[in-house]
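Customer ticket, subject: "Can you confirm the structure for ATP-dependent Clp protease adapter protein ClpS?"

Message body: Hello, I'm evaluating your service for our small team and ran a test protein. I'd like someone to confirm that this is what the system normally returns, since I don't have a reference to compare against.
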Amino acid sequence: MVGILLGAPCENDGMTSPAEVERVQPQPEEAAFEDRPWVTVVWNDPVNLMSYVTYVLQKIFGYSKDHATKLMLDVHNKGKAAVSSGSKEKVEADVAKLHAAGLWATMQKDS
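Agent reply: Thanks for trying us out. I re-ran your input and got the following:
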């Protein structure tokens, strides 16, 4: 809440002047949350072959075979992997492309 408190009249000219302006600053953790980028998360699924997941990551994001394979192995072994990051709009588009390719993907704020 923002409020303005007016001071008492000045003795010399009879005019009033603002004595204090209260400003509310966002909490540091709130500001940090807003500044964090979004990430695209690919989840392990029982349907897609590991070679297909690697192929999709190469085609959609232009990753090298080695990098796409590393991400695919994270998905396979850890259950998920962050495969891209950026603005909310960019990550939404990335998730849509992954869904169109048949992969399970979500988006979230980077932690």
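A couple of notes from the result: Residues 3-109 form a domain with the Ribosomal Protein L30; Chain: A, fold (CATH 3.30.1390.10). The radius of gyration is 25 Å. Feel free to reply with more questions.
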